Inverse folding.
């Protein structure tokens, strides 16, 4: 089987690499904190000491790291030279579309193809391979990476065309809509509690009828049960980073997004208060506290 390079063994990278190994791929894995990748070494991954060491000439390297700066730091000239002509870098991180376009142009100068393929999945969905991928970039490279995305996490793949920034825009749209849904549910369930309605009954009724969708079922349960602190699958800090990117992209395209400003403020409050191990669903605390309820 093909040898794949992978950079990033975080909450999402770990189940994706696990699935790739189980599918028979050989994986050369780099993680900034080596100890966090050791469970994957036990499953058969080869741990390497640098991003460039994860590359096979003319091969594919997938990266899934925290933010724009992290992508820029791993996707340097050393990695490009190690991949060489015919190599493909698949950036699966949630980053600015402008950063993707800048990286793609630099990759092209060095003979490497850049594809944006941000992940729509929480870790449990990635592990079950029921996540969604959105991809943008050169057509040949996208066809080449689709089997890896399917083996790693994706039930569905949506192609956004050749502008590499397009997939990043859609990823930011999706994360904004999730955050907006969390805020909406927090306000609605606060209304229920303030008026003597059992919020758990309201949750069951609404999320099995009018709002029968994974986002409302999964995140709604976390909001109702106040289970948004402790071992976060997606931290409040990362959620704030994404809302900052949403508003940055909106500003550059002259797109008013008042709800995005609200959820950004909610997340900023959680981060400012240094709420330990806060999932981004902790933004719901704002609506509950505004209503005089314990967040």
């Amino acid at each position: 089987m093909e040898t794949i390079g992978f950079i990033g063994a975080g909450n999402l990278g770990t189940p994706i690499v696990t699935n790739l190994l189980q599918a028979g791929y050989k994986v050369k894995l780099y993680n900034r904190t080596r100890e966090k990748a050791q469970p994957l070494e036990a499953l058969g991954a080869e741990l390497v000491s640098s991003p460039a060491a994860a590359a096979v000439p003319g091969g594919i390297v997938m990266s899934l790291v925290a933010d724009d700066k992290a992508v820029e730091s791993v996707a340097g000239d050393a990695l490009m030279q190690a991949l060489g002509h015919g190599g493909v870098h698949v950036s699966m991180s949630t980053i600015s579309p402008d950063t993707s376009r800048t990286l793609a142009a630099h990759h092209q100068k060095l003979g490497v193809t850049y594809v944006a393929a941000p992940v729509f999945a929480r870790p449990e969905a990635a592990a079950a391979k029921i996540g969604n991928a959105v991809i943008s970039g050169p057509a040949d490279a996208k066809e080449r990476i689709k089997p890896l995305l399917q083996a790693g996490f994706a039930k569905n793949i949506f192609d956004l065309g050749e502008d590499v920034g397009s997939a990043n825009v859609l990823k930011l749209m999706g994360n904004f809509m999730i955050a907006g849904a969390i805020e909406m549910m927090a306000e609605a369930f606060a209304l229920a509690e303030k008026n003597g309605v059992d919020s758990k009954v309201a949750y069951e009724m609404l999320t099995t009828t009018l709002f029968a969708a994974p986002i409302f079922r999964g995140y709604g349960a976390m909001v109702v049960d106040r289970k948004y602190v402790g071992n976060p699958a997606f931290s409040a800090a990362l959620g704030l980073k994404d809302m900052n990117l949403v508003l940055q992209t909106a500003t550059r395209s002259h797109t008013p997004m008042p709800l995005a400003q609200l959820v950004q403020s909610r997340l900023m409050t959680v981060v400012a208060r240094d709420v330990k191990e806060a999932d981004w669903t902790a933004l719901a605390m704002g609506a509950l506290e505004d209503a005089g309820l314990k967040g």
Summary: The chain has a mean pLDDT of 97. DSSP finds 13 helices and nine strands in the chain. The chain has two domains: 3-163, 168-290. Residues 66 and 93 are 7 Å apart (CA to CA).
